[in-house]
Protein: Thiamine-phosphate synthase
Organism: Arcticibacter pallidicorallinus
Amino acid sequence: MQKYVSRFHYLTQDLQHKSHLEQVITACESGANWIQYRCFSKTEEQHLDELNRIAEVCDDWGTTLIITDHTSLLSKADIQGVHIEDLSADFTSIRKEIGPDKTLGASANTLDDIKRIAASGAVDYIGCGPFGVTLTKPNDYPILGLEGYKAIMAEMDILRIAIPIIAVGGITAANIDALADMGVHGVAVSAAINKSDNPASAFKEIYRKLH
Ligand SMILES: Cc1ncc(COP(=O)(O)OP(=O)(O)O)c(N)n1
Ligand SMILES: Cc1ncsc1CCOP(=O)(O)O
Ligand SMILES: [Mg+2]
């Protein structure tokens, strides 16, 4: 079953000065239709508690809520899907576990990752990056840049792989037009919004470029 996948994935992050719930409220008030709750600083109990509060806000605003990694929480809160960051995850098993209706996202860095994930037939979209330098999730993967996405999209076209690609990592409003020209389905953004002096305005700037 093909599912709706937003062109703008807003990701919360662990911050000293603003809770995930506060970040979600700002995003919803700014027009978010898709939020990924990406939290690595809480116990399972705290995580579920905050998730339920966030889910209430998202329900009020009609915003799709995705959780990062914690597949087991899918059945415990009013959320619509899970994004798995483990590149080597068994997506066929995860799909069996979560059932057909929940949205399942995966991460990729290369065309080979995308081929493998797409071949599982279990995943609804792929977050592919990093586009640029990011401190949110530092790793050793090579930066793709615009040319990287161009090459990946061209190869996917040849191979007739149609899964939506979401560019991620180091994206700011200044990159949106060029990334859209590369043919990606959408973008995922965290720091450029959350660490901005004015997150609501940073969110809206990106939103306007995508809509
Ligand atoms: C939409 C979306 N895309 C990607 C990620 C996570 O990507 P991640 O696995 O952290 O990136 P690399 O490790 O591959 O650089 C996400 N959470 N959401
Ligand atoms: C989940 C994830 N993986 C690579 S970057 C990132 C988070 C988003 O990056 P940024 O904070 O730079 O927008
Ligand atoms: Mg990863």
